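Hi everyone, sorry if this is the wrong subforum. Our group has a chain we'd like a structural model of before ordering constructs, and none of us has done structure prediction before. Sequence below.
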Amino acid sequence: MKRLCRLFGVYRSSYRAWRSRHAAPSQTEQALRQKITATHAASKGSAGARSIARMVTQAGTPLSRYRAGRRMKQLGLVSTQPPRHAYKKAHQPHLDIPNHLDRQFDVERPNTTWAGDITFIWTGARWAYLAVVLDLFSRKAIGWALSRSPNTELVSKALMMAQESRGKPAHVMFHSDQGCQYTSLDFRQSLWRYQMTQSLSRRGNCWDNAPTERFFRSLKSEWIPKVGYRDMAAARQSITDYIIHYYSDLRPHTHNDGMPPNAAETMYWNAQNTVAKNT
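Answer:
Right subforum, don't worry. Here is the predicted structure as tokens:
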């Protein structure tokens, strides 16, 4: 081999690299590629190298972002995440309800600050509307509702689910945009019954409610088919699976240092219990 490499002017290291490139991957490499492929499939093609590296690592197999990127290229896996979208800005607050949150999205503990919003989804031959409530501590979706009408009843159902799932906490701040559903008398009375403080974004300013906008962007780019759903039942089942299983249990979130919302909240409550025992 040494003579042949000298004869053809090829470095021996290059020849060895060429041979190893065409060799069959080891069992360890095959197992890693299978995990990367399965993780990419679980995200419905939305996860990029950073997210896949975190999810595979959390599952027990250490994987860096760069190794994940190289394997994805070899396997022909590409993230379907769209580019960022620029929102227009405005500075007009609501006359009666100020913006108490004021973009202070980083909160110290659960059940202190929630945010809600509505988006539209194509189902069969009609639009459906999804309302969600996020706990800004972990960005976990704690309440949601799907309906054919974007009315006050829709957002009230989402808020009721959030209240029930969190044990009916009091003195929570609820933030949303200035949609008529959130400024209606019925909804404001619901907030009063739940002993919640209302906060509203400035008119036309999506950045004032950025966490919910980001949640909907992830849902639509990662999970919802580009052609929508065949009917309401399919939409309800798929969105529930996304919220409960993939988004809350598996999907890494930058706000939580790469942990899914459930893991971030579990870590918080474990830390609180430890402090309580030591005091």
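For your construct planning: Strands lie at 113-123, 126-135, 140-147, 173-176, 197-200. The chain has a mean pLDDT of 88.
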